[in-house]
Amino acid sequence: MYRRKPCLGVQYVARHTVTECAKDHRKFRMSLHHKIISIEELKSSEGVFGKSGIVFCDEHPDKAIEVFCEDHSKPCCTLCATIYHRKCESVTTVDKATTGIKTATRTIELHKKLQQLSQDIASSLKVGKNNKTEIETESTNIISEIDSLKNNIIKHLARMENEIKEDLLTKKGEILKSIDNEAMELTSLKCTIDNWKRIMDTCIKHGSELQCLTEVNRLLTKKDELDNRIKDIMSKMKTKSLTFKPNDSIQKL
């Protein structure tokens, strides 16, 4: 078993995993030119590269970094120093540039800054995670409130339905009673008229002139009163109907 270190342009691995790591590095553009060195090779080269360790040049992957340009704050190989930094005033060896780097103020401050940023991000992630939990809880509560509201609306509609039906039955009864009363009055008047007609038929067909005269005069005295009663009743008679008009709030449902 082995543990891989962060990739800085060179990967240190056990000898039997060199080929495997090389294949992995060739899969990605950023590590395509990284140098793969076994741990045994690293140990054998410590005397050559000193305490700075082995880090290979980005421009020339087959060459190790040996110098540091202070003008550009850039470590590089000797070839890069010759090509790109020959006019720079402050070019020194890596060993000299790395002396005290681990305890340098900028290193410590950078480390603290990175640690603080990591903690800040972790804190933000925790806040986001907690917020997700809160959102889930709030969503569940809202759904529960909606269900409760729906049940209350259903109950309210049921009460409204019963009230409307009861009111309908009451109005229906009143209208039917009014129609029946009108019909009774008209039926009574019709019976009176039919009775008068039978009397007239009898007088005309079988009665004497005196009997006919008497009945005609008697009926004529009552005719105006009968006409007035009929006109009064019929003037009040209207075709009745039942209607249902929901209020605005119900119509919008």
Supply database-style keywords:
mainly alpha, 7% strand, single chain, zinc-finger, two-stranded parallel sheet, EC 2.3.2.27, rod-shaped, disordered N terminus, three-stranded antiparallel sheet
Along the chain, the helix and strand elements come as EHEHEEHEHHHH
Quaternary organization: single chain
Please state roughly what percent of the residues sit in beta strands, choosing from under 5%, 5-15%, 15-25%, 25-35%, 35-45% or over 45%.
5-15%
Mean pLDDT: 82
Judged by helices, strands and strand pairing, the structural class is mainly alpha
Contiguous low-pLDDT stretches (5 residues minimum) are 1-16, 45-52
Distance between the termini: 70 Å
> How helix-rich are the residues, as a percent range?
55-70%
Write up this protein.
α5 (105-206) runs antiparallel to α6. The strands form two sheets. The chain has a three-stranded antiparallel sheet. A hairpin with a 4-residue loop joins β3 (67-69) and β4. It has 253 residues and is mainly alpha-helical. It has helices at 18-26, 39-49, 78-84, 94-97, 105-206, 209-236, 248-251, and strands at residues 10-13, 35-38, 67-69, 74-76, 91-93. Helices cover 65% and strands 7% of the residues. Residues 1-16 and 45-52 have low confidence and may be disordered. The relative contact order is 0.04.
